[in-house]
Structure formats: structure tokens, C-alpha cells
Amino acid sequence: MGKNDQLDRSLGLRLVIVVVIGNILGSGVYKKVAPMAAELHSPGWVLLCWALAGIITLFGALSNAEVAGLLADTGGEYAYYKKIYNRFFAFIFGWSLFAVIQTAAISSLAYVFAQSLNSILPLPPLLSGLADFSIAGTFFPFAGLSVKLTAMLLIVLLTWVNAKGVKFGAGLSTLILLLVFAGISIIVFFGLGSRQADIGSSFTLATTAGAVPVTFSAVFAAMLAAFWAYQGWAAIGYLGGEIKDAHRNIPRGITIGVLTVVAIYLLVNMTYLALLPVAAMEEVHAARNLIAAVEAVRTFWGYGGAVFISVLILVTTLGCTNATILASSRTYFAMAREGMFFRKAADLNQAHVPAHSLLYQCIWACLLVLSGTFDQLTDMVIFAVFIFYGATTFGVFVLRRKMPDAHRPYKVWGYPVVPAIMVLFCVALFFNTILVRPREAGIGMVLMLTGIPMYWWFEKRKKGRVEAPPQDKVSS
Fold first, then answer.
1. Each residue of 193-246: pLDDT tens digit?
2. How does it sit in the membrane (predicted)?
3. Pick the CATH number of 14-460 from 3.20.20.70, 1.10.3120.10, 1.20.1740.10, 2.60.40.10
4. Is 211 helix (H, G, I), strand (E, B) or coil?
5. What's the sign of the alpha-carbon dihedral 436, 437, 442, 448?
6. What is the C-alpha to C-alpha distance for residues 472 and 176, in angstroms, rounded to an integer?
7. How far apart are CA 234 and CA 76, in angstroms?
8. Dihedrals phi, psi of 305, to nearest 5 degrees
């Protein structure tokens, strides 16, 4: 393989941390507090669920960091699973990324970007007469079509940006992340310092009048929303072939990035709950077209605050969409190099970027934008991704047995308790999602299982290429 066929190792620790945080900080920090309040009816329980979800996410990140430090390579878990389990399981993971996990994440982030743009500059309605048209009563492709087309345009634009080179895409993420940090700091500082803020009320565990007591299932449903906000930290592993000293920098970047985000989420959600009572949060959720962060900032800054936070959401979702597009396509590139994905996805352009892999991802993500609403897409992502979070964490135990003497730049803190808790939680969340979100779980599972026939098709095609007799070359 020549030099032009190799990925460019140009990302140091700083950019690794930027990509980790950039993949996490998206729409969830602004939107998910409202559905959590509707599930729990208690501000204290909402904050507790943010903290619990952060702890579980950190446990998963610490476990993933040991595996990544040992096996760091382009493709992330796809590369890891081949050594932990087998090629079939690795393929199912890679195909699931393409079919639902990463592409639906890109779709939902771009969708929120378009919603926020629409709230600042109302988009003209398109094909309103077809808004009620549905496929099986589940998908409404023409509902909010102008918003969906804007989201698709963003995906196309950012795909083009990332085809220009990995440092170019990561540099854009750095700039956007600085703007996001500044914006969130302003919200927390001025929000908690305003006369409207009641900081003590945000820690109250009592439920609102007439609400049912908090149940185990409600806590899991609320954490499902929180996990969307934490989703994306593992994507840095997909860039393993483009990171300097990946075995050290991936574990360090994941740990620093996740800890930073947990602190930000607790602080900013405490601010929202201090400004808006839970009953108002429930009304925001019921309205469907409102965003909790916008309504919270509106309480102390009025219309100007609503515009400010809408612009901040635009910038944040732009950054997270960009970071997700940047990282995700590398897994399909790694698969195609082994003949286990569409052949063109293995090609690099002049900027050493897998441009065709980016293109395939772009097309499917755009189709998913048409398929569903924001919450439908995010619940589907979390259901699917936690299957593999559990598998990676269980891989810590497998690798300790398979490769006991291998050098590990990082060993998970609290072994074996920390990874065991993460595995058990993933199993519990899997079954609870089937109970409380059966439609999203069903759609996610069907998309993942399409990987079974695709695996045999790619295997058959690969064997056919190997067994085919060489063709005589004819010079012209």
C-alpha cells in the first residue's frame, strides 16, 4: 500500500479532546431536560438522572479507554471486535453504525439545526397538503418538509467540508467548540445570577402536585433522554489511524472529554431548572415545537435571550454534526478495505480522506431525515448503541483473559466492578427500552439485523473476486 493510500496521522491530544467533546455536545444539552421533566415531575430527580447517566457514561468511557489503548486502530470498535469476538460481530457493529447509529445521529443533529434556524428565520412551508401522508402510520416524510430539506442541505455541505481533509474538519470543530463554551458560560453566569433564578428549587426531589411517584421505569426512560446528550464520545476511536500516539492519546482524550461534558451538563441543567419550574418544563415538552433552553433564557433576557440561545443552538448542532460526520465515515473505510463494505468506500482522495465513504454516509443520513422526528431518531440511536457499549465493556474481561501480558497504556479504574456495572446497566437499558419505546427499539433492531444478509453478500462477493481467474491485460 503506497503512501497516498494511507490516512494522515495529524491529530494530537488537543484535537482528540476537541473531537470527543465536539461529538458529544449537541442538541441534548438544550432539549432533553424537558422530556426528562415530563417523565419524572421532579427537578431533583432530573438532575440526579443527569448525574447517574454521566457516571454510567464515564464507566463506559473508562472501559472503552482500556480497549482503545490496547487495540487502537482506524474503525474503532469495528477493529476491536475482530480481536475480541469475531469478524461477523465486528461487521454487524459496522453495519449498525451505517444503518442507524451514526447516520441517525447525524440526521437528528441536522434536524435540530434546521429547527433552530426556522425559529429565527421562518422557512417557507413546502407541500403542506402532504404533511399527513404517512408510511405505515409511523413515518411522515413530508411533515415539516422545509425544515427537513434544510437539514439535508447542512449534511451535504458538511460532508463537502470534511472531504477537504481531517485537520480542516477538526479545525472547524475547534472554532465552533470555543463559541459553544462561551455561549454556555454566558447562560450559566447570567442565568444563575438573575432575580428569576431559584437555585434551591432545582434540587427538590418532591414531585409536582398530582404527579405519580418516581418509578424505576421512569428513571430509565429519563436516562434514555440524557444518554442521547452524552452520546458520541466513542467516535474518536474511528479516527485511530489519524491520531498521533493513538494508544496513549485516545484513552486520555476520552477521559478528559467525558469528564468535561459531565460537569457542563450538570451546571447548565441546574440553571434551566432554577429558571423554569418542572410544570413549565412539562408544558414545553407537550408543545413539541419549543426548546427548553430557549424558554429558560427567555425568562431573564426576553426576546433577545431567545434569539441568543437559538443562535447558540445553531452553532452547537453545526459543530456536533460536523464532528460526527468527520469521525463516522472512517469505520466504513476500514470495512471496505477488507471487502466488507461497498468497494468505493475504500478509496482516499487527494486530501487522504475517504470521500466515497463520506458520500454514502451523506446519502443515507439524508434519507433518515425524511423518516422521523428528532425524539424518534434519538431513542432509536440510544437503543442500538448501548448494545455495543456493553459489548466493548465486556471486551475488557475478554482481553484480560486472551491477552493477559499485553502492554496496556491505560487500565480501567475500579476493575472489575466498574466494567461489570456498565455491562449490567446496558442489559437493563436494552430490555427497558423494548418495554417503554417498543417502536423505536423495533425499528432500530430491524435496521441492525439487515446486516446479516449484507454480511453474507459481501463475503460471497469477496470470495468471488479471490477465486476469479486473472484476466489477460490487453494494451491499446
1. 998 888 888 888 888 766 778 888 888 888 878 887 887 777 666 665 567 777
2. Multi-pass membrane protein
3. 1.20.1740.10
4. coil
5. negative
6. 54
7. 8
8. -65, -40
